């Protein structure tokens, strides 16, 4: 019973720090609720598979795992390692296509 | 508004896709079903370059006009599939390259097949219409069994003799040359089997 007395204070204090949801948050929520985020993700995935980006990135993962030993590498390590490469490898036209779709979504939400 | 957020969102989505790739590669390696993990990198590059070369040289030489297509393993494939198998509809042995046109005729998309199918339907409709009211008036029932037993196993010309027999139908008798006094059910069963026979003409 004593343990319960020592629990951390209820987060009344934090309430003030937390702002109203930012614009970014609102957009994100709308994206997810409408299902558009999922659509965009699928579209991006498809395009990246078509252009071979995914295979290249997987090869990078494999190379890394060969070096560090199969059982040693964690997902985190992999992600940390390949994220900058992955971002750089995205072809420009695919990036443009996705950005355009996001833009039109933002317009349609009429913020 | 606009591009800043859009780029941010794009980054989000891209990150998610990257994590997917990483987790899948990781899982494959950990569970041991990634074959490529073991082959050295240089070997992999060499193999893929080799495969590309095989396809590339046949294209560059203008070989694509020949009857054989060559795939990345160096295997040759003839332009028209030559394997022979059985059609599941009619049971005939068919060359694979000619299967589609055969199915058209066999299954009824083509003109002749459709005409034949319609003729069969009309026939069976006529028989059903003529047979059903009669048994209630004449308990002995007219004997249509001759129709089914007489139908010759050859083609469409058989329809016309049957039609003329039908048109000469008396309420009493129909076309009986055999006179069994069957049940109604028996007759209907037989007529239906007769119709079934007609349908199986080729």
If you had to describe this structure to a student in words, what would you say it looks like?
The complex is a heterodimer of chains A (111) and B (202). Chain A is an all-alpha fold and 111 residues long. Chain A has a domain at 35-109: ENY2/SUS1 (Serum Albumin, Chain A, Domain 1, Orthogonal Bundle). Helices cover 77% and strands 0% of the residues of chain A. Chain A has helices at 2-5, 12-17, 23-34, 36-50, 53-68, 75-89, 92-109. The radius of gyration of chain A is 21 Å and the shape is flat. Chain B has 202 residues and is mostly helical. Helix content of chain B is 56%, strand content 6%. Chain B has 8 helices and 4 strands. Chain B has helices at 3-31, 41-60, 99-107, 111-131, 134-137, 145-150, 159-167, 184-199; strands at 68-70, 76-78, 84-86, 93-95. In chain B, the strands form 2 sheets. Chain B has a two-stranded antiparallel ribbon. In chain B, strands 3-4 form a two-stranded antiparallel ribbon. In chain B, helix 4 (111-131) runs antiparallel to helix 8. The longest helix of chain B has 29 residues, at 3-31. The A-B interface holds A 23-24, 27-28, 31, 37, 40-41, 44-45, 48, 54, 57-59, 61-63, 65-66, 70-71, 73-75, 78-79, 82-83, 86-87, 90, 95, 98-99, 102-103, 106, 111 and B 1-3, 5-26, 29-30, 34, 36-37, 41, 44.
Order of secondary-structure elements of chain A: HHHHHHH
CATH architectural name of the domain at 35-109 in chain A? Orthogonal Bundle
Count every beta strand of chain A, where a strand is a DSSP E run of 2 or more residues: 0
The helix content of chain B, as a percent range, equals 55-70%
Task: Classify the secondary structure makeup of chain A into a structural class.
Answer: mainly alpha
Biggest interface pair, counts:
A-B, 39 and 32 residues
Number of helices of chain A: 7
């Amino acid at each position: 019973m004593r343990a319960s007395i020592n629990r951390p204070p209820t987060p009344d204090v934090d309430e003030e720090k937390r702002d109203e949801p930012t614009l970014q948050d609102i957009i994100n929520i709308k994206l997810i609720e409408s299902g558009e985020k999922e659509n965009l993700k699928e579209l991006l995935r498809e395009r990246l598979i078509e252009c071979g980006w995914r295979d290249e990135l997987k090869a990078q993962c494999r190379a890394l795992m060969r070096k560090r030993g199969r059982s040693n590498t964690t997902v985190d390590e992999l992600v940390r390692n390949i994220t900058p490469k992955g971002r750089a490898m995205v072809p420009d036209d695919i990036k443009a296509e996705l950005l355009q779709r996001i833009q039109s979504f933002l317009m349609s939400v009429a913020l | 508004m606009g591009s800043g957020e859009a780029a941010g969102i794009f980054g989000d989505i891209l990150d998610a896709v990257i994590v997917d790739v990483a987790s899948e590669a990781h899982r494959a390696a950990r569970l041991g079903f990634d074959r490529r993990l073991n082959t050295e990198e240089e070997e992999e590059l060499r193999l893929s370059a080799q495969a590309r070369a095989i396809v590339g040289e046949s294209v560059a030489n203008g070989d694509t006009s020949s009857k054989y297509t060559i795939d990345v393993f160096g295997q040759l494939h003839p332009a028209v599939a030559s394997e022979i198998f059985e059609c599941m509809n009619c049971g005939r042995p068919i060359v694979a390259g000619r299967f589609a046109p055969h199915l058209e005729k066999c299954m009824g998309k083509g003109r002749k097949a459709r005409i034949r199918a319609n003729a069969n339907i009309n026939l069976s409709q006529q028989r059903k219409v003529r047979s059903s009211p009669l048994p209630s008036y004449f308990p002995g029932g007219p004997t249509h069994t001759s129709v089914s037993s007489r139908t010759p196993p050859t083609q469409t010309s058989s329809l016309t003799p049957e039609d003329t027999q039908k048109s000469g139908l008396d309420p009493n008798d129909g076309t009986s040359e055999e006179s069994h006094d069957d049940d109604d059910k028996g007759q209907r069963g037989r007529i239906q089997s007769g119709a079934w026979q007609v349908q199986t003409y080729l």
